[in-house]
Amino acid sequence: MERVNDMLGLPDHDTLYAALVARDPAWEGRALVGVATTGIFCRLTCPARKPLARNCRWFASAKDAQAAGFRPCLRCHPAGATAEGDPLVRDLLARLEERPGHRWSEGDLLALGHDPSTVRRAFKRHFGQSFLGMARAARLRSGMSSLAKGSAMIEAQLDAGFDSASGFRAAFARLFGHAPHQLRQGSDLLADWIDTPLGGMIAIADDSALHLLEFIDRKALPDGLRRLSAHVGGRVGLGRTPVHDLTESQLADYFAGQGPRLDVPVTLHGTPFQQVVWRALQDIPAGQTRSYAQLAAAIGRPTAMRAVARANATNRIALVVPCHRVIGADGTLTGYAGGLWRKEKLIAIERGYA
User: Fold this and answer.
1) Where along the sequence do coiled-coil regions lie (predicted)?
2) Cβ-based neighbours of 290, under 8 Å, separated by 6 or more
3) Is 56 a catalytic residue?
4) Contact in structure between 64 and 92 (CB atoms under 8 Å)
5) Which among 31, 123, 216, 332 could disulfide-bond with 328, CB atoms 3.0 to 4.6 Å apart, if both were Cys?
């Protein structure tokens, strides 16, 4: 059993050094190593040559390592989100950004010298879905934009990079729960795309409130869209309202460090208990975090930690209802449906608001 260093909140030197030598991925986000002879700090998974045990200093965060005078490694990028420490992920995300309309295949990955199964595992570990799935979402975005502007189906299909109308319709059906032509009929709610520095988001709103705001690559997004569509009798279409414009403007200010509070009006679709939890999340200021126990106590239900955690996980209005501000009781970042790498980024952004 590992012994814990009470002062640092980290296991003892021998345990951490063994993890460093093994490049154990279980320690991602939990510990960093500073090398006294170079003045550089790294992830424990860094591919660089391992230092002697006597030259290692251990840190719980990049902030602690930098405060001690260490510089971040240029190979493993320990000051960034976990995903940024993976060269394969960084390379493919950059290529996807350069060519969002390209129809990526396993053949493309092989041509770049990547093993498709390795790529699949890396992206699922960091983002909860495959790289090819992220690429399909990027292509779908362009088709969605075309339909919202009233383009003919064939034009939208070509804009999205799909070879067949059936492929385009199938992708839309998986996302929204019904075919794209139905999205152009009379609707109570309208869906549109919003770009952010952390990826595209789907926003669904009417003229008075936001009903859903999710990152496009969230694994549970299709289910959330289908549930919302069923709630309003399928009357979800493509288009934009003033609430979309307000949401996009406030998100831009938030990411630019100019707007800590996102006060877009929202309609919460959930049980009374879920809505109480979601309202409590909105009361957490940017730059602060809460544990599940603290959140349960705040709503007067101190023994309902598991129910609070479930409500947190089913939040469908990301950022505006800031479920990313809930962390483990020991201060570690727990799971986030939008991806742990995003949670790391969001909390880092909000430190500037504290």
Assistant:
1) none
2) 284, 298, 325, 326, 327
3) no
4) no
5) 332
CATH of the domain at 190: 1.10.10.10
Burial annotation 210-234 (CB, 10 A radius, 16+ → b, else e): bbbbbbbbbeebeebbbebbeeeeb
Q: 51, 79, 107 — which closes off a domain?
A: 79
Instruction: Indicate if 15 and 91 belong to the same structural domain.
Output: no
Q: Kindly state whether residues 235 and 105 are assigned to the same domain.
A: no
Residue with tokens 């794209």: 180
Which phi and psi (to 5°) does residue 157 adopt?
-60, -45
Residues 239 and 283: their CA atoms lie apart, in Å, by 30
| Secondary-structure percent of the chain, ordered helix, strand, coil, rounded to 5 | 45, 10, 40
CATH number at residue 70: 3.40.10.10
Q: Does the annotation mark 323 as catalytic?
A: yes
pLDDT, tens only, 88-140: 887 888 888 788 778 888 999 999 999 998 888 878 766 667 888 878 777 77
Residues 192 and 244: beta-carbon distance below 8 Å: yes
